Amino acid sequence: MHEWALAEAVIASALEESRKGGLGEVTEITLRIGELQHLELEIFKFALDELAKSYAGSPSLQSLKIKIEPEQAIFKCRVCGAEWDFGDPGLDQKEYEAVHFAPEVAHAYIRCPSCKSPDFEVIQGRGVLIHSIKGKQ
Ligand SMILES: [Zn+2]
Questions:
Q1: How far is the CA of 101 from the centre of ligand 1 (A)?
Q2: What are the two backbone dihedrals, phi and then psi, of residue 27, each rounded to the nearest 5 degrees?
Q3: Domain with CATH 3.30.2320.50 in the chain
Q4: Yes or no: is domain 2-71+125-136 CATH 3.40.50.300?
Q5: Distance 76 CA to ligand 1 centre (A)
Q6: How many Å lie between the centroid of ligand 1 and the Cα of residue 118?
Q7: What's the CA-to-centroid distance between 11 and ligand 1, angstroms?
Q8: From the CA of 102, how far away is ligand 1's center (Å)?
Q9: What are phi and psi of 16, to 5 degrees?
């Protein structure tokens, strides 16, 4: 399942970073999840907790807390260079939900607010980032 695969990747890279930082125990990981990332948050959090609980290696994850913060999507027009976020394109609620449900439909709904071009890229708000890792030596 997508959420489990992603959770495994997050735990693996958090462990790698923690080892590099010389941590013996990881106590808190803060993740930023792009608002265009299609993810069942409940399943994702459950998967992270289960993986942390069952991990018996070093550094320890036994008292790990995982915080999740949303990351706003930002778009950039390839024609005129304007940047904007979801607050701007004037989507009604139904379109907003459709875009969230399937980010690939974004291009069907969103136009540059400056020049009305549909040719834009997503520069932020996709994917899952490890924002910070806290722990003890
Ligand atoms: Zn434009």
A1: 25
A2: -105, -25
A3: 2-71+125-136
A4: no
A5: 8
A6: 8
A7: 39
A8: 23
A9: -60, -45
The tens place of each residue's pLDDT in the chain, 137 residues long, gives 589 999 999 999 999 999 999 999 999 999 999 888 878 889 999 999 999 999 999 999 999 999 999 888 899 999 999 998 876 555 666 666 666 666 666 666 788 989 999 899 989 988 899 999 999 99
Strand order across the beta sheet in which 128-136 lies: 65-71, 25-34, 128-136
Q: Please tell me the distance between residue 78's alpha carbon and the centre of ligand 1 in angstroms.
A: 7
Stretch (H or E) spanning 36: none
Both structure tokens of 89:
């394109």
